[in-house]
Write a structure and sequence with these properties.
By secondary structure, this protein is α+β, with helices and mostly antiparallel strands. It is built from 15 helices and 18 strands.
Length: 512
């Protein structure tokens, strides 16, 4: 059913959508939810706030079958129809990736709800939660905590949909140990570009399962996901220490991610020409000695912050404190810059949301976000740091810059995601906001200078949350993996109906 629209209006609108004469009007699509043909400005925007493309319609599904019926209908119209379909989660794409110009956007959050999440505690394998892909990770967390459990791997920001992060990778400071979120999925329910609803896993329809994980929405729309869980701690010791020397900072990070006994979360930040370092970072870190923290300034220097956590339950606190003391004794940070706080597990995982509320109150959250996320091979990270930090990047006052190493052994190379071809590589994320158009252009120019430097120095960098304008650039991004990527597209979405905002394939144009 199409909400309150009668069938004649639906036929007319479908003709408009498909540029067909009324006599060629298709049969109305049978859905339990509804289509909206106005008031869809939200679907033309995203967190990046740079590209804005209004769709012809937004589908608000009630069941996965609504998504399947819609895609099946577009598929059956054949290549002559220009209509495309994009899944939209919570709208945190950066470059219009979840938009469908003149097409249909599927509002995936319409499928979410606590009654749709099912948790299985035990059995022959580890516990898991079965959740709609349109559910927010923060809600998955709260649901699992009722049973003393939690997912293993996270993103820094939890107000994102499950399907959205699994279509990319899902990376945070736990990924060195557990891998990204796409390495912790047991099963998926997927709607392919032909409108087929397929349940897939490592053992069943494995090629589609691996294609969709990190697949940028190109092979199917994820409608449900089964996520592995582990016992959840109650509390977190949250630590920040500073370095003035990048080589020492990188060496300590790499030592920690390779150690058997180590911290539970490891991330780094770059601080260039900034004051008020501790209390003005991007999250609600409140050190136990705020006076000491507030007096620490960078004096125009480039500094590097190592951010660490250790999870614990109250009965284990004394032992955890001893372990932290030993772990810190192995590091070579500036001794006077040890800042410590203690928060609940939920407070730590949801730390960026606390910063979001502050930014919203200042009108900063909805500004353009010209972010740039890179994966840099370990062998090239010092060249990258020398060329970028303090040279191309002259301050970090518009937003944080993250840098931390990851272990390639924790990534599944059968998925669509591509990484540098080294055992260890670094995530380097430039996460600014632009207060005015001139500032936006300056930040975009800075991003281009960074990418040009990487190309000229032949660093072998890969983009995370990639954005390219031509298929030639996409071919270069995937490298030797391009052929299998294109073959999977031909198998699961041969008309290139899905995710047009990624700008990888164009409908009605040959894929291979």
């Amino acid at each position: 059913m199409f909400g309150n629209l009668n069938s004649n209006i639906v036929l007319l609108l479908c003709c408009m959508l498909l540029s067909l004469p009324l006599s060629a009007a298709p049969i109305p699509i049978p859905v339990h939810g509804h289509f909206a043909f106005s008031g869809n400005e939200f679907a033309a925007r995203d967190f990046g706030n740079q590209l804005h493309s209004l769709p012809w319609a937004v589908l608000h599904p009630k069941k996965a079958s609504d998504v399947a019926a819609t895609i099946k209908h577009v598929w059956q119209m054949g290549p002559a129809a220009s209509l495309t379909v994009a899944a939209r989660g919570h709208g945190h794409s950066l470059q219009g990736q979840a938009q469908a110009p003149q097409g249909i956007v599927v509002n995936m959050e319409s499928l979410r709800g606590p009654h749709e999440m099912h948790l299985v505690k035990g059995g022959p394998s580890s516990p898991y939660v079965d959740t709609p892909a349109g559910e927010l990770w923060i809600n998955v967390l709260h649901h699992c905590l009722k049973h003393g459990l939690a997912p293993k791997s996270w993103t820094d920001y939890l107000h994102l949909t499950v399907g959205g992060t699994l279509s990319n990778a899902g990376i945070s400071g736990q990924a060195f140990r557990h891998g990204p979120q796409i390495s912790n999925v047991r099963q998926l329910e997927v709607i392919t570009g032909k409108g087929d609803l397929v349940v897939c896993s490592d053992d069943n329809n494995a090629d589609l399962f691996h294609a969709v994980l990190g697949g940028l929405g190109q092979f199917g729309i994820i409608t449900r996901a089964r996520i592995s869980l582990e016992p959840a701690p109650k509390m977190v010791k949250w630590i920040r220490v500073l370095y003035s020397d990048f080589a020492t900072f990188a060496r300590d990070q790499e030592r920690l991610i390779s150690a058997e006994k180590t911290f539970d979360y490891i991330e780094g930040l770059v601080i260039v020409n900034r004051t008020g370092l501790i209390n003005n970072w991007r999250s609600s870190f409140n050190p136990q000695d705020p006076d000491q923290a507030s007096h620490f300034v960078s004096d125009g220097r480039t500094l590097f912050c190592l951010e660490l956590t250790k999870n614990f339950n109250p009965d284990d606190e004394a032992d955890i404190d001893k372990e932290i003391k030993w772990l810190l004794s192995e590091l070579s940070y500036i001794p006077s810059t040890l800042f410590v706080t203690q928060v609940s597990y939920v407070e730590f995982l949801d730390r960026v949301h606390a910063a979001e509320l502050k930014m919203r109150s200042k009108g900063l959250w909805d500004l353009p976000h010209p972010w740039l996320n890179l994966l840099v091979p370990r062998s090239k990270i010092h060249t990258f740091a020398d060329g970028v930090f303090g040279n191309i990047l002259t301050d970090t006052n518009n937003g944080p810059v993250l840098i931390y190493p990851l272990n390639k052994s924790k990534w599944d190379n059968r998925t669509s995601f591509v990484t540098p071809d080294e055992d260890v590589f670094y995530l380097v994320a430039f996460l600014p906001h632009a207060a005015e158009s001139e500032g936006l252009q300056n930040l975009l120019n800075q991003n281009r200078r960074i990418l040009n430097f990487c190309d000229a120095a032949e660093l072998g960098v890969k983009q995370y949350l990639p954005h390219y304008k031509t298929q030639e650039e996409w071919r270069a991004h995937f490298g030797a993996r391009w052929e299998i990527f294109a073959q999977r597209k031909s198998a699961y979405d041969p008309l290139a109906i899905l995710a047009p905002g990624q700008r990888i394939f164009q409908k009605s144009i040959s894929i291979l």
